[in-house]
Amino acid sequence: MKSSLTQMVLVSVVCSLCHGIFNAFNVVGGANPSDIKLISTANTAVFSTMAVFSLLGISIVTFLGMRWTLFASGLAYAAYIASFIFFNETKNAALTIVSGSILGIGAGILWSAQNVSIMAYSPSRDHSFCIFWTTFNFASLVGSAVLFAVYFHGGGNFHLPMSTIGHIVLSCLQVLGALCALFLAPVSVVVDSVAHTGQSNTASACTELLEAIKDKWILLLIPLFLTTNFYYAYQWTNTNGLIFTERTRAFNAIIYWASQMFGGLVIKLVYGLQILSRRSRGIMGLTIATITVNAMWGCTLVLYFSFIETPFARNIASGSVSPIDFTQTAQSVAPIFLFCFMGMVDSLWQILTHWLITFTSGDGLSLARYSGLYKCIQSIGAIVAWQLEAQAVSQLTQIIINWALAMFAVPFVLYFILNIKDRSKSKVYPMNFIDIA
Predict the structure, then answer these.
(1) Is 191 helix (H, G, I), strand (E, B) or coil?
(2) What whole-number distance in Å separates Cα of residue 153 and Cα of residue 145?
(3) Could you give the CA distance from residue 60 to residue 51 in angstroms, rounded to a whole number?
(4) Tens of pLDDT, residues 274-318
(5) Phi/psi at 186 (nearest 5 deg)?
(6) Whole-angstrom Cα distance, residue 116 to residue 62?
(7) What pLDDT is stored for residue 16 in this prediction?
């Protein structure tokens, strides 16, 4: 139980059952998929506090330990989903918004603990995040399957709120994830851990973050950081949320998370190609990610003009025409396939980001702190994206913004990768800060 691999897998299970279920809940539109403004406002509250506590989380985790911080964070996830039971009964969103703010605190701390596990427990970071990502998305798939069962008998109902039993099942899964955290061992006793085991105080944390913000190599990655949660608001709310029945949204979510897992397993092969230098692997990973991102947004634009921006889609939104069900294969196959493809592309983008972060330092705790900065910037992007959705900014505008942000990040990432060398004298440090010639 004290091996680094066991501890990393256990943290992955906690994250998957807590944040993975939260993602599954979000993909189908939350408690009431017809209320886009509620879920957008709630997500804004979540990511607002998460942005702050992503920076503070490492200090909290190193001071209190991973076991109890992850346990408390997991309970915050469960409380958030349970708050929608109150909303469905009263239509009062106050408790949900407050719960979202508390969840953001827990999420910031949870991801800080995850960063410590990935950066500290893995002797080879080339594919450690790929392992995490596959495990993490499995729980999202399970959560989506639960939602599919909840909504299945609703048929073509477009405005069907989730039942109380659905909320209870999802909350219980998150409580189970929180309980799993109690089996974690202290970092100091984990075999093969490369973490710095001393405690981190606030002053040193602030100093290190300020140095990171001024660091050229971190600055090069900030445009990429900003994009990695930005597209969820559009994809989950519009591509999956606009034209489908509730059970089809849940069905789509199942294959979306399955494609995430598939993407993680495939790209693991690329980053694990030991016959290639890390620079070559980085160029290959960036090339694959860039091609697929452009293909994804190009297809999204085609879908917008040929399907979403049509009287048919507007009639679905107004309720005068029944939404599309997955059983209507002639109409559903193309948009379902696109949403599935979005899941795979997301895994390529996320894994590329984490892989690049591992080159910025040779110290596990420093890497975890830089990952906290990444989650902070990522959350800021998510706040903007969910507010675009809450303010009903046109879908075409959102597509253009998402596409432009992704392409803006590419040249900076390419410059970063071109400076990767496989020796410790490199300005962009190799993983574990060792000479691997």
Answers:
(1) strand
(2) 14
(3) 15
(4) 888 888 999 999 999 999 999 999 999 998 888 777 776 666 666
(5) -60, 145
(6) 9
(7) 87
Which one is predicted more confidently, 223 or 332?
Answer: 223
User: Among 137, 136, 142, which residue's Cα sits nearest to residue 118?
Assistant: 136
List the helix and strand counts (H, then E) for the chain: 16, 0
- pLDDT at residue 391 above 90? no
128 close to 11: Cβ distance less than 8 angstroms: no
pTM of the model as a whole? 0.85
Copy the structure tokens of residue 330. Answer: 């002639």
Contact by Cβ (8 Å): 131, 8: yes
Bridge partners of 244, per DSSP, are: 324
pLDDT tens track for 330-364: 888 999 999 999 999 999 999 999 889 888 776 66
If one compares 60 and 35, the residue with the highest pLDDT of the two is 60
238 or 412, which is more confident:
412
Q: Which of 24, 364, 353, 34 is nearest to 177 (CA)?
A: 24
Only one residue has tokens 């606030």, namely 202
The three-state (H, E, C) secondary structure of 369-429, written as one string: HHHHHHHHHHHHHHHHHHHHHHCCCCHHHHHHHHHHHHHHHHHHHHHHHHCECCCCCCCEC
Burial degree of 198 (CB within 10 A; 0-12, 13-18, 19+): exposed
CA distances from 222 to 140, 334, 372, 385 (A): 27, 33, 12, 16
List C-alpha distances in Å: 407 to 376, 402, 410, 414.
Answer: 21, 9, 5, 11
Q: Which among 138, 128, 115, 181 has a CA at the least distance from the CA of 5?
A: 128
Residue 125 to residues 9, 22, 119, 345: CA-CA distances in angstroms? 14, 26, 7, 21
